[in-house]
Design a protein that fits this description.
By secondary structure, the protein is of the alpha+beta class. It has one domain (about 1-170): Calycin beta-barrel core domain (Lipocalin), CATH 2.40.128. The protein has helices spanning about 1-15, 30-35, 145-160, and strands spanning about 35-45, 55-60, 70-75, 80-90, 100-105, 110-115, 125-130, 135-140, 165-170. The protein has an eight-stranded antiparallel β-barrel. The longest helix has 16 residues, at about 1-15. The protein starts with a helix and ends in a 12-residue tail after the last strand.
C-alpha cells in the first residue's frame, strides 16, 4: 500500500511538471519541422540555470525517435566561457499542438508550452513552462523591434505573467560555437 501511495504521489508530481499554466493555451496547427533550427532568447523570467548568461540561443533538431533534440547555449562573462545544456523533447498528445515535455536531467520532464507563434513565418514564439514562473520570448533573429517586444509584454501581462520581472537578454556578442 505504501508503494502504491508513493507511486501515485510521484506520478502526480511529474504530471504537474508537464501541465499547463492557468489560462495558457498551447497553439494549435504547430508544425515541428518549421520550428526546428536556431532560436534566440530575447527575454525571460530569471532562473538559476540561465542566471548571468547572455547571447543565449537554442538549436532544435529532429531525433530519430520522433522527438526533438535541444541544445541551449549562453555566454557567461563572469567565467569567460560558453555554457551548454543538451536535452530532448517530446510532444504531449498531438504533434499539432505546441505542448511538449522537455528533459535536461534524465527521466525528469517539464512543460514546454508554445502559447503564441508566428504561424506564417515561424519568426517568433512565446513559451512558458508548467506554471507562470517560466516565460521566454524567442526569435529567429537576435534582435526584435520595440513593437514586437511590446506585443510580447502585452500578451504576458494579459495572461498574468510577472512582466516587470522579465530580463531582456543581451544579444550583442558573438554566437555560441556549439549552435550552428
Amino acid at each position: 500500500m505504501k508503494q502504491l501511495i508513493l507511486a501515485s504521489l510521484i506520478a502526480l508530481t511529474l504530471a504537474g511538471c508537464t501541465g499547463l499554466p492557468e489560462d495558457v493555451t498551447p497553439v494549435s496547427g504547430f508544425e515541428a519541422d518549421r520550428y526546428l533550427g536556431r532560436w534566440y532568447e530575447i527575454a525571460r523570467l530569471d532562473h538559476s540555470f540561465e542566471r548571468g548568461l547572455s547571447n543565449i540561443s537554442a538549436q532544435y533538431t529532429l531525433r530519430k525517435d520522433g522527438g526533438i533534440d535541444v541544445l541551449n547555449c549562453g555566454y557567461s562573462s563572469e567565467n569567460n566561457e560558453w555554457k551548454e545544456a543538451q536535452g530532448k523533447a517530446y510532444f504531449i498528445g498531438s504533434p499539432g499542438i505546441g505542448h511538449l515535455k522537455v528533459s535536461f536531467f534524465g527521466p525528469f520532464y517539464g512543460s514546454y508550452v508554445v502559447f503564441d507563434l508566428d504561424k506564417k513565418d515561424y519568426q517568433y514564439a512565446y513559451v512558458s513552462g508548467p506554471n507562470k514562473d517560466y516565460l521566454w520570448f524567442l526569435s529567429r533573429t537576435p534582435k526584435v523591434s520595440e513593437q514586437s517586444y511590446q506585443r510580447f509584454l502585452d500578451k504576458a501581462e494579459s495572461l498574468g505573467f510577472d512582466s516587470k520581472a522579465l530580463i531582456r537578454v543581451n544579444q550583442t556578442g558573438s554566437e555560441c560555437p556549439a549552435v550552428q
